[in-house]
Write a structure and sequence with these properties.
Layout lengths: L11 E5 L2 H4 L22 H5 L22 H15 L3 E5 L2 H4 L10 H16 L3 E7 L5 H7 L6 H16 L6 E5 L9 H5 L9 H26 L4 E7 L3 E3 L4 H23 L4 H10 L7 H9 L4 E5 L4 E3 L33 H15 L3 E5 L17 H19 L5 E7 L19 E3 L11 E3 L1 H11 L7
Parallel strand pairs: 1-2, 1-10, 2-3, 3-4, 4-5, 5-7, 6-8, 7-9, 9-10
Antiparallel strand pairs: 11-12
The protein binds 2-(hydroxymethyl)phenyl 6-O-phosphono-beta-D-glucopyranoside (P53).
């Protein structure tokens, strides 16, 4: 019985962040400008993220939250000490590409940027924390966008390869878990953030997206090849914005719609994990007049260098319908879905479904039989500190506990192989979807508001001690 309640020995508990959402210091020590810096908070945010509008001007009166964020660039020692205190076994973070190659196409890296992450990784190891590094988390140097059109260009393969070679060589022995592209399927929903894509009037947007996706998929294989060559200890994973699609009713049309929606997302992982393009995608391209240029060498790379493990984010399940009259959506930003009447929602309209995590884990396991890593899960909520500055975030504890139980069941009852779990935004940070600071996920509260005002002081929420206990008991404390 007690055996049922724990996790495998060595299970990697931890938390996750992304460079641009927490580092700030956007122009420090030679860092170049990136797409993620030039997306302001406010009503014009979404059209930029989704590639419908260009606006890159810090002087336009908008607030650009990524410029300063929570200034982790200067405070990482304090923050990692807090992660260490919680007992983190792993910390997922991302590299800001433009710290390493400020423009993206230089031949030599920026030493100050390399040194920053070296210090950060060493700090992690002081506490026995294994870094899990996302090579690109929605970021692309602006120069690569202006000069080459971002991932629509094949030239990106060369620049990304150079970035990877630099990272794998420099951080050999310090990092062994790597993710090539954060939420690679988000390229379809948020092409500017996902791949630095901006579109010209009248062009075939889907074709451009899939061409860029092809470049990313090949780049991912090149990264896997290099990582294994440079250090056989390296493990490379893909990363999917996951969440099972449910049919809205038992109508076969609804089941078919859900399957199609799932395939749109699994398409990327099918290639990264199986090593070839699935027939359903090739047929769809044919039907839709999409021609993706690819070489024989590309296809060989995809085949020879598949990922070692599959990582994903999970916030919610989704709903699909084959009936065009069914249109009621959740409020979820960017990646909205039809509303599920059986589920509660967060303050941002994201529907809460712990069993959906177990279902998603099982689906991915059945589809690929590769080890999995949940690298994002959490509740974005409004926190109100009491007069002592303390946040009693029982709602966050409830969300996380329910999801931890679901993954414990998937491991113990269903036998899926799961390496670890990193909660999203283990310290409060800027929201990727909305640019808000008040949409908080952390165990650690950061005194900063939506306008960037505040002391940036860190303080422990109630969930801090709760999560510490979860890790110490290897999950057994979750009732
Ligand atoms: P925020 C949309 C849907 C699912 C995952 O999101 C998403 C998004 C983009 O908003 O992104 C991931 O901050 C992403 C993180 C992001 C996190 O989910 O909008 O990898 O960068 O912060 C949560 O609440």
């Amino acid at each position: 019985m007690s055996e049922k309640l724990t996790f495998p020995t060595g299970f990697l508990w931890g938390g996750a962040t992304a460079a641009n959402q927490c580092e700030g210091a956007y122009d420090a020590d030679g860092r170049g400008l990136a797409n993620v810096d030039v997306v302001p908070i406010g009503k014009d945010r979404l059209p930029i993220i989704t590639g419908q509008k260009k606006m890159f001007d810090f002087e336009d009166g908008y607030f650009y939250p990524a410029k300063e964020a929570i200034d982790m660039y200067h405070r990482f020692k304090e923050d990692i000490a807090l992660f260490g205190e919680m007992g983190f076994k792993t910390y997922r973070l991302s590299i800001a590409w433009s710290r390493i190659f400020p423009k993206g196409d230089e031949l030599e890296p920026n030493e100050a940027g390399l040194k920053f992450y070296e210090d950060l990784f060493k700090e992690c190891h002081k506490y026995g924390i294994e870094p899990l590094v996302t090579i690109t988390h929605f970021d692309c140097p602006m120069h690569l966008i202006e000069e080459y059109g971002g991932w629509r260009s094949r030239k990106m393969l060369e620049f990304y390869e150079r970035l990877c070679r630099t990272l794998f060589t420099r951080y050999k022995g310090l990092v062994k878990y790597w993710l090539t592209f954060n939420e690679i399927n988000m390229i379809l929903h948020a092409p500017f953030m996902g791949a630095g894509l901006c579109f010209e009037e009248g062009e075939n947007v889907e074709q451009v997206k899939y061409q860029a996706a092809h470049h990313e998929l090949v780049a991912s294989s090149i990264a896997t090849k290099l990582a294994h060559e440079i250090d056989p200890e390296n493990k490379v994973g893909c990363m999917l914005a996951a969440g099972q699609n449910y049919p809205n009713t038992a109508h076969p049309d609804d089941y078919w719609a859900a399957m199609k929606e799932d395939r749109e997302n699994y398409f990327f992982i099918d290639v990264q994990s199986r090593g070839y393009y699935p027939n359903y995608a090739k047929k769809a391209w044919e039907r839709e007049g999409i021609t993706v240029e690819m070489t024989e060498e590309d296809l060989q790379l995809l085949k020879d260098y598949t990922v070692d493990f599959i990582s994903f984010s999970y916030y919610s399940s989704r709903v699909a319908s084959g009936d065009p009259a069914v249109t009621e959506q959740t409020e979820g930003n960017i990646f909205a879905s039809l509303k599920n009447p059986y589920l509660e929602s967060s303050e941002w309209g994201w529907q809460i479904d712990p069993l959906g995590l177990r279902i998603t884990l099982n689906t991915i396991w059945d589809r690929y039989q590769k080890p999995m890593f949940i690298v994002e899960n959490g509740l974005g909520a409004m926190d109100t500190p009491d007069e002592n500055g303390y946040v009693a975030d029982d709602y966050r504890i409830a969300y996380l506990a329910a999801h931890i139980k679901a993954m414990r069941d998937a491991i113990n009852e269903d036998g899926v192989e799961l390496w670890g779990y990193t909660t999203w935004g283990c310290i409060d940070l800027v929201s990727a979807g909305t640019g808000e600071m008040k949409k908080r996920y952390g165990f650690i509260y950061v005194d900063c508001d939506n306008e960037g005002k505040g002391t940036l002081k860190r303080s422990k929420k109630k969930s801090f001690d709760w999560y510490k206990e979860v890790i110490a008991s290897n999950g057994a404390s979750v009732e």
